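Sanity check

After download, print the first record. It should look like this:
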Amino acid sequence: MEYSEEILFVGVTRFSVVLESSINSFRATRGKTLNQAKEVVWQSDRLEKRMWFFKNFCLPSYAQNAKNSKDSYGVILANKDFPLLGELRGLCSTVDNLIVMPLEDQQNHRSELYNYTMSIASPRQRIFSFRYDDDDALSANYVPLIKRHASVAPDGNIISLNKGYSLRRLPDGSFGMHPRRYPMNAFGLGVVSIREKLKTILECGSHQKISSGVTHDTENFGWLSPIHDGNDSHVNAYKKESIPREEMIKLVESLFPHLDAKEISKIPTVRPPDER
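Expected structure tokens:
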């Protein structure tokens, strides 16, 4: 089958989104009303940290994608009444093709992403729709890596970059930065399709429940995932050897050159391990 042009990349990132349809999907808001959930998620100190992570991990990665491909787009989902909506829009305006999509509390974000993707895609263009958390970083080579896999993947195929690095700052000021294997993660996981049969990553359901039609890249490092006091997921006790700040900076500079390694060294200390 012949396609019209370069593959279109469309990333989607949730920035502290609180919707009726997703309250129970996250540990921090499970069982709460909409207003109660907003009070939890939109606490000023929490938002300040999320914005720091967005500026230093997520935003530079979207900028690097845009450098690697003129057909790279990003959609940041946020509530219309989000307290930092103006600041978020200002940051996104500095990156080509990166937009903020404001949502009403009852709005269907899946259909909004679908409609937006259809509006920017050309006839018979192949599309890679991927999900990407607001506090993680993608590899500087994310776009070429995905292009290589997508060139031979059938429509409807999921592409997962299984290897990356975790990063945490420990209470003593040292850092843990080690290779991690995490298949089907939310760090750039996406689906390939053609515009006429568009399928976005949000239509694929939970990334942890997809089991078929997947291309697993098990060789290349695709992401950097910080572990910090704002993580919604479970935090385990740290049992590996740590490294000093100077060594962590050199490692980030060599593996993720599009990130500001010295600024990243200010990452908040990880919260205490969760009890099982």
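If your output differs, re-run the checksum step. Summary of this record's structure: Residues 8-264 form a domain with the Spore Coat Polysaccharide Biosynthesis Protein SpsA; Chain A fold (CATH 3.90.550).
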